[in-house]
Write a structure and sequence with these properties.
It is built from 9 helices and no strands. By secondary structure, it is an all-alpha fold. α7 packs antiparallel against α9. The protein starts with a helix and ends with a helix.
């Protein structure tokens, strides 16, 4: 038992490297929250634009969705961080990671919201038109509230999956949780920092997973 504690829960090593790892945890949480906020907001906006059936905009949005749903998250992060400077745009590791993961989440969110809008029965449109409502009032007051309720469980699961990609920020020197834990583990030649990192990941992601399951359970009742 003592060797296990010394290897994975060494108090001296945890005390030495704990502050740095907790600092990385703060960065991870900030990146994850900004990714969720920006990705969901942009996805909703793009889905609304698609609902307007504007030909050129629909083509551009579909292309954006297909590209960012296909590319690995690491490729997107590396391209944005190292590629944009050639266009005169220099982003920090933090900003590059948020923009990259936010774009990936936005692509998935757009498709999820769009599918949910299409899932609302056509009769809802027809009934609203019979009351004299215009297109935008129908979309925002009748269709979109139902579509958002339909999409929440799937969107929550996708957001959790993508925000785990914050660990990929180490590729562009983002001082996030896993990167700091791995550095500390290499220096100390002991996996205790990684144990702390795993515990902090659980602290952040377990509530999101529980909320996701709760929303999934409520989904059918809401619809």
């Amino acid at each position: 038992m003592r060797p296990l504690l010394d290897n994975f829960f060494n108090p001296q090593i945890l005390a030495q490297y704990g502050p740095s790892i907790i600092g990385g945890f703060g960065t991870t949480v900030a990146v994850a929250l900004l990714t969720i906020f920006s990705g969901v907001a942009i996805g909703l906006i793009l889905a609304v634009v698609r609902a307007m059936r504007i030909g050129p905009a629909d083509v551009l949005i579909t292309t954006f969705v297909d590209v960012f749903r296909t590319l690995p998250q690491l490729v997107v992060i590396v391209f944005i961080y190292f590629g944009l400077p050639y266009a005169g745009i220099q982003l920090s590791p933090f900003a590059a990671t948020v923009v990259s993961l936010g774009a990936v989440l936005a692509a998935f969110a757009t498709e999820i919201f769009w599918a949910a809008i299409q899932a609302v029965p056509q009769g809802q449109w027809d009934a609203a038109r019979s009351l004299g409502l215009g297109f935008f009032r129908i979309l925002f007051l009748v269709i979109l509230p139902q579509a958002i309720r339909i999409s929440v469980p799937l969107l929550t699961n996708r957001a959790i999956a993508i925000t785990k990609g914050t660990a990929l920020g180490t590729a562009v020197a983002l001082p996030e949780l896993l990167g700091r834990a791995e550095s500390a583990m290499a220096i100390a030649a002991n996996p205790s920092p990684l144990t702390l990192a795993a515990a902090l990941y659980l602290v952040f992601f377990v509530p999101l997973v529980v909320a996701s399951r709760w929303l999934e359970a409520l989904g059918p009742a809401r619809r």
